[in-house]
Design brief:
binds S-adenosylmethionine; 7-stranded mixed sheet; disordered C terminus; alpha/beta; Rossmann fold; 7 helices
Amino acid sequence: MSAAETQKRVEELGAWFQNLNLNGVQTAPQHFLGDYPAVKFARFEEALPNDLTGQSVLDIGCNAGFYSLEMKRRGAERVLGVDFDERYLAQARFAAEVRGVEVEFRQLSVYDVGTLGEKFDLVIFMGVLYHLRHPLLALDLIREHVAKDLMLFQSMQRGSNDAMQVEQDYDFWQTEMFARPDFPALYFIEHKYAGDPTNWWIPNRACTEAMLRSAGFEIVAHPEDEVFVCQVREQESESDVTRATRQAKGSFRA
Ligand SMILES: C[S@@+](CC[C@H](N)C(=O)[O-])C[C@H]1O[C@@H](n2cnc3c(N)ncnc32)[C@H](O)[C@@H]1O
């Protein structure tokens, strides 16, 4: 396909969020974060295995497929990109066609990952959490249904970039930690943030880490402020939330 034809198709596919280079054509050259997500990826790419031969990858909220295509380039055997927005999936399918790689893109919400009935060696969950009304539910579902080993995770974060050591329990009358900026906090966006009504909950760093742990992930690398490489915690057969709910049934205290 010529550069002129590529340019025409890129324009027909609507506004792009991810800037990809397709046949020399930039899909989102005006992105407010620059050459995104390539500039971001450059800051943490070495934290991921360079050789994914034989591995399966699930890219949740794949958008135009930047990470899916990159994992395929690293040799992954099977890459499935899912997003609930069919507009972005059309862009991703076109990008894969231009690059000549085989990646499956499917319309699916993160809340429905259980319907895949399959676990993946690497789950990519980048830039989606803060767009969700139910972020912890999404993490629990990923942990329970699709994460076999590693998860590459990113969230926008606001507030303090420090994370205090949280205690296992606090006395009812102990309240001073809630005023600490490094206590886990999830900021609720009732209306819009950055002009975007799909931004719902923005964690500080302590909260990102606490949510990942609570959902059954161990953080094994933190290569960039917003990026975490996590491993499924082995001995955990159910998420902390599931266990807490089960225990609460037997000993509920108001
Ligand atoms: C900020 S973009 C991030 C795209 C890409 N993962 C990245 O890091 O560059 C958020 C993406 O998540 C998708 N998304 C939002 N809510 C979703 C949901 N409930 N299920 C699946 N995808 C969702 C959006 O359509 C969009 O493509």
